Amino acid sequence: MFVQEFIAAVIPLYLVATVLYLYRALKGPTIPDHVLGVDLLSYNLAVLFIVLGIFFEEPILIVTAIPLALWIYALDIYVAKYLERKVMGA
Amino acid sequence: MIEELLVYTGLGLIALGAFAQLVSGIGVNRFRNFYLRLHAATIGSIWGCVYPIAGAGLVALGYKELGPYSTFMAGAAFVTSFLILILSPAGSHALARAAHKTRQALVEPCVHDALDPSMCVRGGGS
């Protein structure tokens, strides 16, 4: 089957999106913009882990994506709570 | 037969996710205030993250080269996509609420802001 060729053709689109997100994460005029950029970069990284796990036929790569998804949510909640109440922590 | 169907469906979802991430990247850079950028960002996290991960799970179910770990990979992919489906809107809403309550990001081209009219910056075109 042509799975590896198809994924090799699709991955450059994800990398272009990574560059666009990185630009917003570095530039973003306000603090929520920076956090949003980091958020999107991490989601992009999670997708890339799983797609590359299929591409390289390495199933262990997928284990890294689940804690990454949970940490993105934790980052959102921490930053939102710090902005609202000026306390760190959950 | 059923394996080919799974693999083709999954590859289609991965390609859809790549297109959605590209649209989201353009939208995040082109929209004009934080709340509009949040709209583009949720396109990138649902269409661009949940669907390709579920598609990767479908590919892993039908892709024999992965060996005995293919069902493990499919299950982990479905769990990840479900977690992101639940957690990503919750995180975005918390961030938007904090940004609006603490006046970090003004509503720049504004028509009407019922929560806090003093944050509504009129003008600036559409």
TrEMBL record, chain A:
<dbReference type="Pfam" id="PF04066">
    <property type="entry name" value="MrpF_PhaF"/>
</dbReference>
<keyword id="KW-0813">Transport</keyword>
<keyword id="KW-0812">Transmembrane</keyword>
<feature type="transmembrane region" description="Helical">
    <location>
        <begin position="60"/>
        <end position="79"/>
    </location>
</feature>
<protein>
    <submittedName>
        <fullName>Na+/H+ antiporter, subunit MnhF</fullName>
    </submittedName>
</protein>
<keyword id="KW-1003">Cell membrane</keyword>
<dbReference type="GO" id="GO:0015385">
    <property type="term" value="F:sodium:proton antiporter activity"/>
</dbReference>
<dbReference type="InterPro" id="IPR007208">
    <property type="entry name" value="MrpF/PhaF-like"/>
</dbReference>
<feature type="transmembrane region" description="Helical">
    <location>
        <begin position="6"/>
        <end position="23"/>
    </location>
</feature>
<dbReference type="GO" id="GO:0005886">
    <property type="term" value="C:plasma membrane"/>
</dbReference>
<keyword id="KW-0472">Membrane</keyword>
<feature type="transmembrane region" description="Helical">
    <location>
        <begin position="35"/>
        <end position="54"/>
    </location>
</feature>
<keyword id="KW-1133">Transmembrane helix</keyword>
From TrEMBL, chain B:
<dbReference type="GO" id="GO:0015385">
    <property type="term" value="F:sodium:proton antiporter activity"/>
</dbReference>
<keyword id="KW-0472">Membrane</keyword>
<feature type="transmembrane region" description="Helical">
    <location>
        <begin position="6"/>
        <end position="28"/>
    </location>
</feature>
<protein>
    <submittedName>
        <fullName>Na+/H+ antiporter, subunit MnhG</fullName>
    </submittedName>
</protein>
<keyword id="KW-0812">Transmembrane</keyword>
<dbReference type="Pfam" id="PF03334">
    <property type="entry name" value="PhaG_MnhG_YufB"/>
</dbReference>
<feature type="transmembrane region" description="Helical">
    <location>
        <begin position="69"/>
        <end position="87"/>
    </location>
</feature>
<feature type="transmembrane region" description="Helical">
    <location>
        <begin position="40"/>
        <end position="63"/>
    </location>
</feature>
<dbReference type="InterPro" id="IPR005133">
    <property type="entry name" value="PhaG_MnhG_YufB"/>
</dbReference>
<keyword id="KW-1133">Transmembrane helix</keyword>
